[in-house]
Amino acid sequence: MTQPLTTQRNSLLRIVKFMDIYSKRLPTIKQLQYFVAVCDELSFTGAAKKLGISQPPLSTQIKNLEETLQSPLFLRNTHNIVLTNEGEILKLKAKQLLNDLCSIVKSTSNDEKVLIGTTKTLSFDYIPYFKTFLTEFADETEIYKHNYTSKELQLELQKGNIDFAIVSDARDFTENSLLIYQEPVTLVLPANHPCSKQDKVNLNDVLDLPLFWFKQHSNPLFYDQCEQVFNSLNYPLQRRTELADNLSMLLEVALGKAMMLLPQSMAQAKVEGVTYKKLISNQDKKLKINIYLIWRKNLKMTAINHTIINYFHQN
Question: Beta strands 289-295 and 164-167: pairing type?
Fold first, then answer.
């Protein structure tokens, strides 16, 4: 016969009567988390899925918890599980304790998110490396909303408006920078150009088209890097001043009036009459865009800031 709830409660309380906060017989936080998950799901399979673990370690932790408390917490059969009276009592107490712990962690941590600026030169949504980073640090970071160039982001860092920036130029941040990625460039050609049928294209074979190109002051390092490649071509490369936006230039390419070199992550727009091609390996290697993580010189090295730098350093 099942004991009354008050009797069960007194039984549970007797177990901990002579314990203090330093007792080695206290349940662990993990055990309580696993227990609450089973309570919520009323299924060991469902709880294991919710926790992202396999079922055996979950069952082991629940068994250890019951041994610690010297009391069964669940009644099990082949179809379902039911909380015992002791389990019902512990469920209320465990949820309250875990919620209190969450509040303590929240109140003692820095609620302000780390602000990161990303250059508009690249489309980070199409670079798996950065998508993984942004997913893993989603709770601790926030992306700066302004659509800025690398140069503009450097100014924002100096003003203290952001904590980190991911840019293509780190000349003024040599002591506070890290090379983290090299973005390939993609050649954009008219679909009716003879080279559009090739897997990889040599720039020497498309010199009949002018190239939309940026001003040197926009990114001096990459500009000079490209000039070395262009100067090695068989004939001088014609240039056209860039238009206001990529779509306008893509339409000009579709009409056979020009070609473009775009960062690989930016070569996503589907425009009729345009094709995207890789460069031959020798030119591809020399035209990669260096991407840097830079940070404020007076940036406080909190645990999360150090973790962000270390993440990119290790990867």
Answer: antiparallel
CA distances from 49 to 59, 65, 83, 106, 260 (A): 13, 20, 20, 26, 49
Q: What is the pLDDT of residues 252-296, one digit of tens each?
A: 999 999 999 999 999 988 999 999 999 999 999 999 999 999 998
The Cα 167–Cα 152 span in angstroms is 10
Q: What is the DSSP string of 46-106?
A: HHHHHHTS-HHHHHHHHHHHHHHHTS--EEE-SS-EEE-HHHHHHHHHHHHHHHHHHHHHH
pLDDT at 2: 47
State how far the alpha carbon of 143 is from the alpha carbons of 15, 47, 195, in Å: 51, 34, 39
Same domain, 282 and 295: no
Q: How far apart are CA 111 and CA 169, in angstroms?
A: 30
pLDDT at position 106 is 65
Q: Are residues 132 and 224 in the same domain?
A: no
- Our count of domains for the chain comes to 3
- Quote the pLDDT of residue 1: 44
Tell me the pTM.
0.63
Pairing of strands 239-241, 211-213: parallel
pLDDT of the residue at 278: 97
> Which regions in the chain score pLDDT beneath 50?
1-2, 15-16
Whole-number pLDDT of residue 61: 94
3-state secondary structure of 20: coil
The per-residue pLDDT for 290 is: 94
Q: How far is CA 39 from the centre of its chain?
A: 32
Tell me how far apart the 2 most distant CA atoms of the chain are, in Å: 97
Task: Classify the C-alpha dihedral 238-239-243-245 as positive or negative.
Answer: positive
Residue span of the structural domain in which 258 resides: 185-287
- How far the first Cα of the chain sits from its last, in Å, is 61
Contacts of 149 by beta carbon, 8 Å cutoff, 6+ apart: 119, 120, 121, 218
The CATH number that applies at residue 74 is: 1.10.10.10
My answer on whether 283 and 297 are in the same domain is no
